[in-house]
Amino acid sequence: MAYMLLLLIGFIAGTVGSLAGLGGGVIIVPALLFFGALGWLSAVTPQTAVGTSLVVIIFNGLSSTLSYMKDNMVDYRSGLLFCLGSVPGAVVGAWVNNTLSVAHFSLYFGLFLIAMSLFLSLSQKKTNRSADETAAATENEREQAIPETEAEETLKKQWWAQRVTRTYMDRNGETAVYGYHPAAAIAIAFVVGFFGGLFGIGGGSLMVPAMIVLFRFPPHVAVATSMLMIFLSSIVGSTTHVVMGNVQWTFALALIPGVWIGAKTGAWINKRMPSRTLVVVLRVVLVLLGMRLVWGSLA
Q1: Taking residues 266-289, what's their average pLDDT?
Q2: Are 14 and 261 within 8 A, CB to CB?
Q3: Residue 77, Cβ neighbours under 10 Å: how many?
Q4: No. of H helices and E strands in the chain?
Q5: Could you tell me if 27 and 16 are in contact, meaning their C-beta atoms sit under 8 angstroms apart?
Q6: pTM of the predicted model, to two decimals?
Q7: Contact 21, 123 (CB under 8 A)
């Protein structure tokens, strides 16, 4: 019974995580805590739930990335650059996680999920902006730019200050232009990695909206690139938790098959349906999970 429940949790987490680029931790961690409290599974601490989730997310990220690679949807250079910030952030988050009590963890995690729901609403509005509008806005910004000083020109010659611009053409022939400054991207990725290591969610629930809202990534590219980041940062974050003894290996081995299959399923669905409906559903799920965790921490 417990094995089948874990297999189902893994499949749902893998499908939702791969479909939206979230890694699946937003499903696994609350599910382990919830069903452990009900007695359907062996009770686990927040630290064990997070550590186990991060180990499982490695396979979710790998399975999803391999699927997205076949359609050339992964921005490898951006993903590896973001990992310069997300990997150290994941380590710091994993260590901070060990200082949280059950009540504090539930409260912070619940508030975090609710905040992510609001952030996703911003990302959904941003995806409605066309490539032509993006290009026009960029050109307008250039025309209105104030002449730069010599110091500013020197600063822009540094690799971490130069704006990176990317162009992506989808299967329908539509072109999207997006970009970012490396220093800002690495700083944001560090914050993402920190929350990923702290809450065991892989960081995708924050990174995908950030890429769409702040850097104007096409949604499908943001999801695919996020899964590459999740795969790499989860390896580091989970290693930290393994060293600290925060992994329930029995649960992990039961979750991994479901997550692997679910990740393939989510990637398949992602390529064939608009993300707008998923974002709405995901926002509702995040709010419900967040309210339940906050209520439990105050009870």
Answers
A1: 76
A2: yes
A3: 11
A4: 12, 2
A5: yes
A6: 0.74
A7: no
